[in-house]
Amino acid sequence: MRALPRRAVLAAPAAVLMFALVACGGSDSGSDSKAADTQQQAQSAGGADAAGGDGDDKKEPPLTGDVKQKAEAAALAAYPGTVVKSEEDAEKPGMYAVEVKQADGTSIEVYLDKSFKVTDTKKEGTEEADDAG
Question: Which of 25-34, 66-75, 112-121 has the lowest mean pLDDT?
Fold first, then answer.
């Protein structure tokens, strides 16, 4: 068996790191369109699963600006923790979805309507939705 050249062995971790950065959106430069372009490139290069997607065919655009701030604030008010992601919900058109990691380590998907009222939740890792009231 022939050994790999030293350059190839050293380049592999760098390539993995670069792909991970691209898949995660790179640095927070404040350019939402650049991050979206980077995510689309990552998805076309390695599929939705490699880019951190759910593997669904449904496109869930990330929330931005004022909508993002209001949706995340409303979700955190109802379910304190740390926001993992916030996006438009492809499964429920016209709704926002904010994933919150709670203090106990569990994650919950909080669904909000356009007026930022919590309408539903789903514990991450389960398929059943819990009624939020």
Answer: 25-34
| The pTM of the whole model exceeds 0.85 | no
- CB-based burial, 35-61: b 16+ in 10 Å, e otherwise: beebbeebbeeeebeebebeeeeeebe
Beta bridge partners of 128: none
> Pick the residue with more confidence: 93 or 55?
93
Task: Report which of 90, 97, 56, 95 is spatially closest to residue 75, judged by C-alpha positions.
Answer: 97
Name the burial class of residue 101, with classes exposed (0-12), middle (13-18) and buried (19+) by CB atoms within 10 angstroms of its CB. Answer: middle
CA distance 82 to 73: 11
